[in-house]
Predict the structure.
Amino acid sequence: NVINMGMYRLFDRLGVRYETGARDAAYPGRVVVYSGGGALVEIYPGADAFFRANHAVCRNLILLPHTVRSYGELVAQMDSRCFLFAREQGSFDYLAAHATGGAQVFLSHDLAFMLDDAVIRGLPWHPGYARATSHAGPWLRMAVKFWLDARRHRTLNCYRQDHEAPEGPVPETSRDLSKLFASADMSRLSCENTVKILRTVLRFYDRVESNRLHIAILATLVGRQVTMHDNSYGKNRAI
């Protein structure tokens, strides 16, 4: 949600008009923009199907800043109508090495850096949407728990424990905010609500320690002291 909020902010600044598409659809003759992230990594199979269905038939394909570690043969099939943005040097080098079909490759920042604390503070809160998606009650209860916790512990430990988690122990006090406040809906309303609630919780604490890239970035943007640990395949360190 943080990445997509950065995308919406980018579209606002550029004056881009857009329609929301579906990852399992093809869009012949259209300009197709795929949001930022790490979809082209081997541990996330399936996203490549969207690019295979679209790169040959769309008017243009724009991949917003991504970590790319796999699917080099797919990149090689893309031509000059495709604009691929890497969010760190390793991904740029990988794309440049495999873009033998003419795809244009660029290096840029992760989309989360389109945000800052003033922007996030100014985002609207959508209580009706939160109630409709059944987020309002659970999110409020969790926020109160974090507020109480922050009165005892000034450091928030926020570690992922999925397939991106590196080997090693995790503090018993760890709370994975990205998982707790997750929303499968990447609509603008959902992203605004999620980023707002994350800002609220992060600001309860003085320090944040995390191997979640966007928790670390967001905590930094809202003025917390942050120690960011790497993930399993080096994405955090690279960015």
